[in-house]
Each structure stands twice: as C-alpha cells, then as structure tokens.
Amino acid sequence: MTSKNVQIKEYLHDYCLMKTPPKYAVMISGQWGSGKTWFVEKLIEEFAPKEIKFLSVSLYGISKSSDIDDELFKQLHPRLSNKGVVLATKVAKGFIKAGLKLDLNVDSELTLSGEIPDIKWPKYLSDADKHILVFDDIERCAIPINELFGYINYFVEHGGHKAILIANQEDIIFKDDADGEEAKIRYQKIKEKLIGKTFEIQADIEEALESFSKELVDSKLLKHVNDYPRIIQKVYELSGTKNLRHLRQSLLEFNRLLETLDKKILAKNELISGLFIEYLVLTFESRSGNLLPEDIKKLSQDLSIAQYSKKPNPHQMNVQKIENKYFELDWRSSLLSDEIWGELFGSGLIDKISINSELMQSKFFASINIPDWRKLWDFYRLEDDEISKLLKSVDKNFRGCKYKNTGELKHVTSTLLELSRLGVYGATSRDILKIALLNVDQLKSSKDWDMDGGEYGPLSDTGWNGLGFHGNNSPKFKDFNNYLNASWKKYVDDRRPTEASELLRILQTDPKEFLHSLVINNSSNSKYYSTPILKFIKPEDFVSAVLNAPISSYKIISICLNERYKVQTLILKDLAPEREWLYKVSKILNSEVKKAKGTIKSVHLSELEKLALAGAKILEPKD
C-alpha cells in the first residue's frame, strides 16, 4: 500500500473509533477504477471482528431517498426483508427511524411518537458509535447533490452517525453543469456543511495484483500474473490511466484468451509474455478511447506512415505517440495480425482456429531456416549489413518469380517498396511494381494457384500470416493489389465452368454433397454458398440431371433451392447473377410438370419450379 494510502487508512481507522460523534462525514475521492471502493471494503474487513457494523449503499441510479431507506432497512433487518415477510413502506421506514434514532423524512406523514412497533432491537442499533454508513457512487446518484447531501446530513448531524462517502469529485462538479469555476464554487458551498475531510486515493497496483491473483485460482493466467508482476506494473504505469478496474478486466479477458490456446503455445513463456504485453497495451489504449477497433486493424500501416512520412495526419501522429509511450517495452510482438487484434477488441469474439494458427507460425515455432523474406520484413530491427545480405537473396527470388505463395509475394512486394522509399533498396518503385506483376502472371499461368495462403488470405489489404504489409497505403502497392485481385478474379472465372460441371456430376452421385457445397452449414465444404456458380451450368443440363435423379433426391434439391436464397442480404447481392438462370430453370421445369401430369414426380417438379421462381424474385434488384 502506498504511504499516502496508509495514512488515509490510519485516519479512517481513528474516525471509525471516535467515541464522540464527529458531526461530519469523510469523503474518499478518486478517478473511476482507481480502487476507492476496494480500499473502503478492505477497511470494513479489518473492522469486522470489532463489533462495528457498516451499512453500505451504492447510490448508482437511485433517484429518491426512499430507495436508500429501503436498502438500509434490508441491511438492518435481513429477515424482515425476505419475500415471506411483507411490510408496508411506511412501517419499514418506521423501523429504520427507530433503529437509527432520527427522522429520515421530515415530510413523512408517519411520526415516531408512540408509534414505533414493539420490537426488541439489537443493542448496536441504539449505539451511534457502533455502526457506520458508507455511501458509494455519489456521482452516479440521480438525486440532486444538494438534496443528497442534505439527506445524509440528517444521519451525521442529527443522528450522530459517522459516514464515509465514496466518489469522483470531478464528476460531481461537472455532472449537471458546465460552468467550470462557478460549478466548483457551488459544489464547495454544498459540501462544506457535511464533509469534514476529503482524501484522494492513489491506485495501488501491487496490492491490487495480489488481490486479483486470488480471483484467478486454477486459471492459466495465474502463473503469468505471478511471473510478470513488474511487466504488468510497467505497462500500467506507462498507460497513465490509473484505472485498476481496467487492469482487472483485462486480466480476466486475457485469461479467457489463454483458455483457447494450444498446450504447445502455452508452454512458450516468452511467447505468452509478448502476447500479454501487447494485449495489456491495446486494452489500456482502447478502453481510454485512444484506439478504436478499426484503428487497431490498420495499426502497422499507420505506424509505418507516421514514422517515415513527412506529413502524417493527426490520427497517425496519435498512433506514433502511443508507440513512443511504450517504446521501452518493445510491445509490438507481431505474434497476431492487426486484423485479429482488431476483431478481439471489436466484437470480443475469439477465433480459436485463426489465433492458434498464427501463433503456431510465429518465430517461436519456426525452424532455423526462417525464409529470408520473413527476416527482411523485420528490417527495422536489423543491422545494415544483415539487410544488405537479405536483400540480395530476396531480390534474386523476386526477379526470378520464385515466390509461389501469394501471401509471401505480397509481403515481398510491400517490403521492397518500403525499403525503396526509404532509400535502402536501389530499385525504383516502378521497377518493383513491374516485377511484382510478372510474378502475378506466373502464378496466374499455373493450374493450382491457391489464393488463400493463410487464415485470412492474401487478399487482405492490411496483412497476412500475422504480419502487416509495409507501406500498404502507397500508390504502387495499391496498383499491385488491384492487378492481383483482377488476375485472381479472371483466374477463378476461367475455372468456374469446369467447377460447375463437377458440381452437376455431384448432383447426380451425391445430392447431399451438392447441398453442402451451395448453402451455409457446419460442413467445411460450403465453398460456393456466396458464389454464383450455378449460372455456369446450362439450365437444360441442370433440369436433365434432376429428371434423372431418384425421387429420394428431390427433397434435398428442394432444401438447397430454398435455403440458398434465404441468406443475408450481402450474400444475396453476390448471388444476383443467378437470377436469370433461375427464371430459365423454372420455365423448363414448368414444361416438365405438364409432361408428367398425374404422377408423383410432377408434384416434386412443381415444388422445385416454385422454389426456383421464388429464388429469382428474391434476387431481383431492390429500389
């Protein structure tokens, strides 16, 4: 505990033990999350064996004093507050008044002259020096501050009770008034009659961590909290937030993340340490409002621009300020991509598969033969002679179109463009772009070009495989991306007829696989659920395949047509090219229904016709 907090604690101890009613309350003030409530709760625990009773009331959201009366009554008489005992409000107030020996509501119709119920009260209720009132969340109370303080003053001045008020004074002063100094003066006048002493609590990180550790029993995080107290304290101090509540929340949430990690990953202490530091920094900065989830998703990009651009915008300058704040920690671990971090701090959802995949591909699991392009990506931390050596190797492979993985090619291109801009790499950005496009052409000519080289796929504009792209906002990198995306689209479109033919074959041999391929489901094979693949099948061939399929398959085909066009609006937009195909299919089916009239097959075909027509109408463009 800090020396100042120790002194405050000693004063409160003496205050609570005063034999003579002090006739004033004590206020414990501090920023939200600084540990005010926790500090007072610890004090109450110490007094527990001394037969001094504390009545603690949170005023959060309370709008009338009668609600405070009710809460005090519940604490004074828990048995009488049970559901099985119903008491009228006025009688309840009478009990409180009798117990506290004062009139809680001077305007109440109920008087205490001879009307107090004949109950044997516990002795402590008649001793003002044996119980102390604690009012928390003063600034969050809906009762006007002058009325609230007047209410509490009845206890303190007229009843001789001691009271501890917990609040953030700054929030009280400016809650209802933005007049600055005038609001402050008004508050001081209201305050001086009730409050004799005001103390400002200092957030005590060491004692808080000790307390938090007790909440983490049997958790995977406990070991790391005990192993890295200095790291946690350092991040907390550098953040400047002085908010212990944010720290506690971040520890609990990080523990949730740890619960999803593979045992091999958890065994890497250095990895967990780096992940922990980055998580803490992002938590403090996001909770303080300095970083939004969308900012985190492009953090590497903004940092790169801020560090090397002559005219960074205000947002990029702010990101650089955050980087400088934690510079000594080397907190940018690059263990997870900005995309994943942004999602974590946005939706709060944990993509277990992606996170484990990226961590397993980090330097902690890499073989000694780490690719040169990956080493060069970290050029900010390399010596010049090492950069020169790596550049020769990467340049040779780049010019020889040796990069077969699209994600690697994007990293190489972005890194070389950035090094060229910094004057470290001799080639011009135009030359780099020209060679990058040749690499794309080489990939496009292959029969097995796989665009998805990682969990998020190289089509991401921000990064791949847990690493952000350097200078990804530069015009030349955007030109490269555009060419790559256009080439991939053409590559895919050129292959669609072949894939559609295969899909038609599957319809006849395995209708369930056909269904799984076309609608969203828990199967890993639903690859065409948002792809207008059906337009590449001739409507006549599709109907012919349906006619040759067994009757037992018709139900599955019906489900497919029904579910495929009941998905989200965004996906329906992607499926719009199938609209004309559906109209043609429904028309052909209509003819087949007439031909098969009087058979059970015509009933099934009629159902398929209606579903095809309904799907076409759903895909009609909306105004």
How would you concisely characterize the structure shown here?
It contains 29 helices and seven strands. By secondary structure, it is mainly alpha-helical. It has four domains: 3-200, Rossmann fold, CATH 3.40.50.300; 205-360, no CATH class; 372-490, no CATH class; 510-618, no CATH class.
What does this structure look like?
Helix content is 57%, strand content 5%. It is extended, with a radius of gyration of 35 Å. It starts with a helix and ends in a 5-residue tail after the last helix. The strands form 2 sheets. Strands 2-3-4-1-5 form a 5-stranded parallel beta sheet, sandwiched between helices. Helix 23 packs parallel to helix 25 and helix 28 runs antiparallel to helix 29 (600-618). By secondary structure, the chain is mainly alpha-helical. It is built from 29 helices and 7 strands. The longest helix is centred in the C-terminal third of the chain and has 35 residues, at 475-509. Mean pLDDT is 82; it is low at 84-90, 102-128 and 453-458. It folds into 4 domains: 3-200, Rossmann fold (3-Layer(aba) Sandwich), CATH 3.40.50.300; 205-360, no CATH class; 372-490, no CATH class; 510-618, no CATH class. It has helices spanning 3-17, 36-47, 65-76, 89-100, 145-158, 169-174, 181-192, 205-215, 222-227, 229-239, 244-258, 263-266, 269-287, 293-296, 299-308, 314-325, 338-346, 352-360, 372-377, 384-399, 406-421, 429-444, 475-509, 511-518, 539-548, 554-564, 569-575, 579-595, 600-618; strands spanning 25-29, 53-58, 131-136, 162-167, 195-200, 463-464, 467-468.
